[in-house]
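Recall the central idea of this unit: under ordinary conditions, the amino acid sequence of a chain determines the structure it adopts. In this exercise we apply that idea directly, starting from the sequence alone.
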Amino acid sequence: MGAPAKRAIIIGMDGASMELVRNMIDWGHVPNIRHLYERGASRPMIGVFPTLTPPGWTALATASWPGTHGVMDFNIRAIGAPLTETTWGIDTGLARSEYFWNTVERAGKTPILVKWEMAWPPTVKSGIQVEGTGPGVSNHHQIAGYHLFVGGKWAPRPIGGARDPETLDPSALQEGAPYDVVAIRPAAGWSNLPASARPPLEVELVLRPLARGREEMLRGERGVPQTYHGLILAGGDGGYDRVLVAPDRDAGGAVAELRVGEWTDWLRETFTIDDAPAESAFRMKLIALTPEADRFELFVSQIWPTGGDFAVPLGTAEALHAAVGPFVQNPGRDALGTFDDDTYFEMLDLHHRRIGEYAVHLGTTREWDVLFVETHASDYASHFFLGQADPISGASEATIARCREGLARTYASIDRMVGKVLELADDDTVVALVADHGGTPNQHPPVDINVVLERADLLRYRTDPATGTREVDLTRTVALGVGLVHVFINLAGREPGGIVAPDDYAATQQRVIDALLDYRDPATGERPSRSRSRGRTRRC
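Accordingly, the structure predicted from this sequence is:
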């Protein structure tokens, strides 16, 4: 390309360090990214602080540091309010800097955004945007998250080791059961029963709108469940081998027949949320059914609307659904370790395929000058697989092998999405592949900073007499961890009811630093934030 480019494609990969991308290139997992790497230029990442999704992607989209754009965390302390009050950071209204796509529009050009992180509510005026909220469960649009129906001798598939808490990995909900237990019982009340070599059995599959979503981002307050029925049948001497799925106990009205490993086509359903209808689409997969029917596992994907305001301008979502098919915002990140890895990667491929197909359809049917496309899958892999992909984590050989395979499959899936998007690139198009931060294998379990502060007598709690629960006592608290990475001093004159005198601020800072450096993990006795024996500081 000898002349300046006329168009640009910007592809984002959350949590993808250049070192890991280079490894994936060298190991042959990412041929499309390799093509870009060999034809273009690259450089190590210059990360922002803190190294989190909201400040990182807002910095990428505004070309300003977090201290300038103001989006510092997932949970941002509310200025002027008590330190215990925060503002949810996935909100473009919080940014004090102009977004690149709005700069493009001011120049008379047209942007298209497809699932670009930290871009909601939309600020585009003449452009097009599909979704764009946050990772995993962080979205305003889903009708429900995944459902995993299990029965009998079923067990999850944890990766082992320390699990990142929800405060560190907001892509995965960790409150509430990650699966729905069903009773496997003799079928009763069915009509049009097909032949079965063994007595038919049944399970009840209750789909709950608003389930498994982030509370502050739910699309409504009340949802009416829809019940499907699974009829378990035996085809011969081999025992139970298939499941009919029907909205009523009428086998003649079944919407799917599944054997182990099979997916349904897209199923459509109308849910009621806050007394209004919500049209949706989802898929089901029969993951496990033993011949004796003593183990049952059926997965239902994220339930996503078929239209509405998850894309702008209005009507875009309906048009994309009709031309391409239903969208998938979350491939089941929050189910990793509960269901099997293969099902996750099948969903991840569908997720990436849809992102690529939506981008190509819009790019070939609409005018555009800059296309923004993003995936969070590399960060999902960092939180779930990368942590134990190296012997330094202390994981077993089997776990290390599983994690390395998970990383390779993740980047291969991303690469196929990149290849699809590159169909839009011609000789007048510049392509940029960018990331917001990276990740490393684990050496220490996550540390709850407020536990450290409490042990150092810098943080005090009181018990609510009405509920019996502990809550922060700001009248006796010197410092408090707020959000994922910040510690704030309860400074008099700045914080409501602050107790630390301004003259004591520097000394209090040092007390906090000393507490963090001196903290020892109770299980290992090690200091996660430093290693005195080696004379160097490690990231906490």
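DSSP finds eleven helices and 27 strands in the chain.
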